Amino acid sequence: MKKTVFLGALTVAGLTAGVAGAATLDDIKARGKLNCGVTTGLVGFAAPDANGEWQGFDVAVCRAVAAAVLGDASAVEFVPTTGKTRFTALSSGEIDMLARNTTWTLSRDVDLKNEFVGVNYYDGQGFMVPKSLGVSSAKELNGATVCIQTGTTTELNLADFFRANDMEYEPVPIETNAEGQQQYLAGACDTYTTDASGLAATRATFENPTEHVILPEIISKEPLGPLVRHGDQEWGDIVRWTLNALIAAEEFGITSANIQDMASNGTDSPEVNRILGTEGNLGEMLGLEADWAVKAIAAGGNYGELFEKHIGENTPVGLARGLNAQWKDGGLLYSPPFR
Q1: Longest dimension (CA), the chain
Q2: Nearest in space to 62 (alpha carbons), one of 176, 228, 222
Q3: Which tens digits make up the pLDDT trace of 134-143?
C-alpha cells in the first residue's frame, strides 16, 4: 500500500540530514546483516510463515541484496513497518532499505528525501466488494462505506475518484492491512480499496475467497518498488542494480537452476558474462565481489521465478504477469544494459 506524502515531511527531512552521509554499505558489513523494512504482513509479498520465517516477493528482494552484499541471503533483519512509520524508519537509519508495496511519487522521492531505485511491481488501485453486494463496477459505489488505510496515497486517489464521478462515500479508517481485512469481513465497510495486488493477496487469505469480487476499475498508477535514503548514492546503486540483475536474469534465461553452470563454463553472450562477473569489472564498480549478481540471483531465482513462486497464477494470490511481463512479452519490465 501507499504511504503519506504529507505527514511528517519536515521531521523526515530533518532525520535524513543526520544520516545521509553515512556509508550504508560499511555499516551493513560491520553488523553482518541487512536491516530491511517490510510491511506488517501481506501474503505473497511479505509475511511470516508458520515457522516465523519471512516469505514473499518483497522479502525476496531483501534477501537478494543481502546475498549480493554479504554472500548470505539469510543475513537479513526484517523490520515490519506501517504506512505511517515506514519513511521515518528509513530516514532515521533504523532500516537500510524499504522493500514493501510503496508507490513511487514525486513528493516521496523529493520532499521526503527518499531514493526509489526501480519498480518491482506495476500496480494500480482497485476495489474489493462482497459478491452478495451485487455491485459490478466501482461507479456503483455511491454512498458506500470504504475501508481505507490511513497515511497512504490511496486516500487521495479515493477522494479524487469519487469527486470526479460525483459520488459520496464514508471512509472507515484503518492502520494496517490486517485491520482492514478484519473490518471488511466484519461488515464494517462495503468495500476495501488498496493496490489491486494487495486486494488479491488479502482475498487469498479468506475462508471463502470466491465470495468476494475485485471490481474491474483501476483508478490510479501505482509503481511499487524498493527505496533507500537520499545521500548515499553508492548504496542506492547496489540496491538498484541488484533489482536490475533479477530482471535481466529472466530476460537472458539465467535461472537458479543453471546459474552456477553458466558462471563456471561461461556463455556466448558478453552481457550475460558481465552479469555473471566472468567478464569486466562491474562488481568492482559497485564495491562488491565479481560474483555479486550470481549470489543475488541464486538466492531465490530471477524475477520471473520469484513472481511465480510468491504471487503468480498458480499461487493463492493468483496474479497474472500483465504489465509486469518482460518488455519482449508486451510488459513494462526492463533493465538497463549491464555494460
Answers
A1: 64
A2: 228
A3: 999 999 999 9
Residue matched to cell numbers 474491474: 216
Give the C-alpha separation, 81 to 66, whole Å.
19
Q: How far is CA 197 from CA 28, 67, 209, 248, in A?
A: 31, 27, 14, 23
Does this model's pTM top 0.85? My answer is yes
List the Cα angle 194/116/110 in 5-degree steps: 95
Written as nine digits, the cell of 161 is: 475518484
Q: Is the pLDDT of residue 56 over 80?
A: yes
Residues 56 and 204: their CA atoms lie apart, in Å, by 14
Report the SS3 class of residue 116. strand
What is the full DSSP assignment across 167-178?
--EEEEEESSHH
Separation of alpha carbons 89 and 81, rounded Å: 8
Measured distance CA(191)–CA(214) in Å, rounded: 10
Which residues in 30-143 belong to E strands, given as ranges? 34-39, 47-48, 54-55, 76-81, 97-98, 114-116, 121-123, 125-130
Beta strands in 162-317, from DSSP E residues, in sequence order: 169-174, 191-195, 212-214, 222-224, 227-229
Q: 323 is written with which cell numbers?
A: 504489465
Report whether 195 contacts 44 (CB < 8 A): no
Q: How confident is the model at residue 11 (pLDDT cuts 50, 70, 90)?
A: very low
